[in-house]
Amino acid sequence: MSSEYVEKLLGHAGNWSDAAYNRPREDWLVEAYLKAVNDLTIYKPNEVVEQTQELTAQMASKDKEIQALKDNVKSMQADMQDIFEVLRVVKRNDGRSLHGQNSVR
Asked: Cα–Cα distance between 95 and 105 in angstroms, integer?
């Protein structure tokens, strides 16, 4: 906005030599203000909504990733339990598996 428009909106008389000649119409002032209002606004609800939606989507994606990792860990734990059970059987049988194979020593 021009400084003259700002002064007028603030209710200042402006420069005395300019005051008689520089009288912007009210509709010009409103139009200039409406063009500048977005740059003057600190709280912008549309941006907050967009940022919130973006963060919510990111969190949902991370939640899915975390769940996939948890499922993977559970699967690996089950596999490890199976391996430990086989090792227990081999140990009990003096190094022989259940199928009578040769010693693993």
From this structure: 6
Distance CA 18, CA 35 (A): 24
Q: What is the mean pLDDT of the chain?
A: 79
Distance CA 96, CA 90 (A): 5
Q: Are 42 and 60 in contact (CB under 8 A)?
A: no
- Residue 7 confidence (pLDDT) above 80: no
Helices (H), the chain: 3-9, 16-19, 26-40, 45-92
Mind listing the pLDDT tens digit for each residue in 53-84?
A: 999 999 999 999 999 999 999 999 999 999 99
CA distance 48 to 60: 18
Q: How far apart are CA 77 and CA 85, in angstroms?
A: 12
Range 8-32 average pLDDT: 65
Number of C-beta neighbours around residue 19 at 10 A:
14
Rounded CA separation 53/47 (Å): 10
